[in-house]
Specification:
Strand order of the largest sheet: 2-5-8-1-9
Distance between the termini: 56 Å
Structural class: alpha/beta
Largest sheet: 5 strands, parallel
Length: 316
């Protein structure tokens, strides 16, 4: 059986290069192709994604947790049939953890083997030790060397100012200099999605480099469409009831209002229990699927969930 395998640099096993994916012709095509892979977008987000592909600009996605920011990167990867490379940001992350590092254990083994073989040429040994085969590619370098690819820089608001500055420089040139190897430049820039839950303000310099999109909680109709798209096996009535209750919960003063991800989790949990429709008793019993704080759970239990469900039934 013949075929090719794709490595981290985008090169294939037969020595060729993985072909680039044709960019969509306009925002409408982006919307249609994203919907084909199960991700529903509005006109604003479809336009931002199209411009990101056409202009090679990152998309900066900001909004509450669970509204679909991270899922956008996965949907773009499926749409483009490209690998998704994810960098999860956290406090204290630095370039060596995000970009590259050297495989010190392998370097040490190589050095010992060279010494055992009687190699005494110091310059040759040093050159061998810092050969590309000992380079450990972290997500950012992987994305630069993989064509095509989608790079997700998740929760960039958790990183510090120094990492933001480093990220800005890398996204401006799509290249990086490794002192021992020289400059490594992307043959074609990756599609980049940055997300922020707005735990702190990200600097304007980084935002200006990007196409910005604010992710708000969806309307009832759009959220229901998302649930139906993601969970087609769940009954239409159960999907409507779950979506209606989540929309009502968001109108309350909660510590952490549920996102679309929680709506999907709740509907999936109810379906796993064999439910085809929802009542107040079952809703209270499964609140742990949608609410993650004790205060929010207590607030939900004090609500007249039966009345909300009855109102939804009357409206239907």
């Amino acid at each position: 059986m013949s075929g090719t395998t794709t490595g981290p640099s985008g090169e294939t096993g037969d020595g060729g290069v993985r072909p680039a994916v044709a960019a969509p012709e306009g925002p409408d095509e982006v919307r249609r192709r994203l919907e084909d892979v199960g991700y529903l977008v509005d006109e604003g987000l479809a336009t931002a994604c199209f411009l990101a592909l056409r202009l090679h600009r990152p998309v900066f996605c900001e909004g509450d947790a669970g509204v679909g920011k991270t899922s956008l990167a996965g949907a773009l990867a499926r749409m483009l049939d490209a690998p998704l490379i994810r960098l999860q940001c956290y406090e204290g992350i630095d370039a060596s953890q995000a970009l590259y590092d050297w495989d010190f254990p392998r370097q040490l083994l190589h050095l010992r083997a060279a010494e055992a073989a009687g190699v005494t040429d110091v310059e040759r040994l040093e050159a061998e030790l810092y050969d590309r085969r000992f380079l450990v590619e972290r997500p950012l370098l992987q994305a630069l060397r993989t064509q095509p690819s989608v790079l997700l820089v998740d929760e960039v608001d958790r990183a510090d100012d120094e990492f933001e500055a480093f990220l800005l420089e890398l996204l401006s040139e799509y290249s990086v200099t490794v002192p021992e190897l020289g400059t490594l430049r992307a043959a074609a820039p990756p599609v980049v999605v940055l997300t922020s839950n707005r735990t702190r303000e990200v600097h304007d310099a980084l935002k200006r480099r990007c196409l910005y999109h604010w992710f708000d909680h969806p309307t009832f109709a759009r959220e229901l469409a998302i649930v139906r798209s993601r969970l087609p096996a769940v009954t239409a009535r159960l999907s409507e009831q779950v979506t209606a209750l989540v929309q009502a919960l968001r109108s309350e003063d909660l510590v952490k209002p549920p996102g679309v991800a929680e709506t999907i989790d709740w509907a999936e949990a109810l379906d796993a229990l064999g439910a085809t429709e929802l009542d107040a008793e079952l809703a209270v019993a499964t609140l742990g699927s949608v609410l993650k704080y004790r205060e929010d759970t207590e607030r939900a239990r004090s609500m007249d969930l039966s009345a909300i469900l009855a109102l939804r039934a009357a409206g239907a």
